[in-house]
Structure formats: structure tokens, C-alpha cells
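Hi everyone,

Forwarding the result from last night's run.
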Amino acid sequence: MLCTDGECRDPNKYEMLTRNTSKDFELLIHNFSESDLDYKYTCTCGFDSCTRKLFVEPNHVMSLPTMTKLMKDKNYINNDSMEIVIMLEKVNPVPNCSAWFEGRFINDATVTVMKWYAYHNDVKVIFNVPVNVNCEGRLQILCNLVYRNVTIFDEHIDCHAREEGTLSMITVSIGCAVFVMILLICIYLVKRREILFGRRYWTNEKTKQSANVNQDPLLTADTKKQEKETSPILNM
């Protein structure tokens, strides 16, 4: 029971209208919202009753977004473009969104319905800003809902700062790669030098050993010859 004999339990929400000269009864709903739709409202007077279901066409309902989520902001750059992704919840009808840069129209944004309800939708708005020489200034994304314009993005962007940061990262990466390459080359040269030095040392030792081996017979022969020369004297 919402109202009885002109008195309503929640007078801020409902108001019962009666006319003494007519059998018409009316129910006035204040602060009307989606929660008041798709219900059967019945008015009873004596043995007479009248029931009406309250509904409206979805395209006749305008619902402003209750929440805005910035999924990818102005710092996200991919393929030479700055991608901005915004989620709009409980909006109706599906809006038409466009981007404005420094007060000038740039291009339309892509609007995709993510979830559909009876009288509203959750939509995703995507806009790609080309990264070029003229990408520093005020960027606005406006969405049109019937006769209302809603601003869902309004910030100052600067692509150059992001590009400089990217170039710095690339420069540092290249520098690190060059340093590692030089370090590997130095290690390779040191190892190669050690190997060559070891081969030379081994060859010198073998040569020295061969020389000593060749000298032994000479020394032995000389010793025997000397013994032969001195042996007669000893015998005498």
C-alpha cells in the first residue's frame, strides 16, 4: 500500500491526487527513477479497481553516466598513437562522442556497448590521438546524450614528454647492449691470448727438451772419447 485516502507513507516519493467531481484517481511519483518502472500500479475504490503497468520506451529514457573509469590514460602510447579508453556505466541512450583539441574538433571517438540493461548501457569509449608535432594542449572528449553534452575527459596532454622518455629508454638500452658487446669482445680476446700464450710455452718447452735430448749423446760420446784417451796413461 503506497497511499490510502489521500495519505501516503512516503510523501516525499508519492502523492495521491483525487477530484471530488470525477472518478479519476492519480498517483504522482516524485524523484522518478528506473526503479519505479516495470511495476503494476493498482488503484482501488470500493469494488472498482484499475491497474496500469508503468513503463517507457528505452529510447525515451536519458540516463547520465553514474561512474567514469579511465582505463588507459594519456601516458599510454602504442603504434605512434596515444590511446585513451574510458568506461561509462549506466548511460542511455548510447552516446555519440567526439574529441576536441584546443577548442577544435579532431575526430569522432569509437563507442562500443559492453553490457546492455533494460534502460541503460555500459559503454566503452576509445579515442586514438596521433602522436605528431602538434600534440601538446588541452584535449576534451565530449559525449552527446539527446540534448545534453557530457565531458568525460578534459586534460592537458603532452606527447613530446612521453616521446623523450621513450627515446631515453631506447638510448639507455642501446648503450647497455653496446657495453655488453664490448665486454664480451674483451673477454674473448683475453681468452684467446691466454690460449696462444699457452701454446707458445708448450712449444718452447718441447724445443728445450729436444735440445737437451740431442745434447746427451754428444756428452756421452765426448766422455767415452776422453776415457779412451786417458785410459792408456792410466794403464801405464
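The first strand starts at residue 3 and ends at 4.

Cheers,
N.
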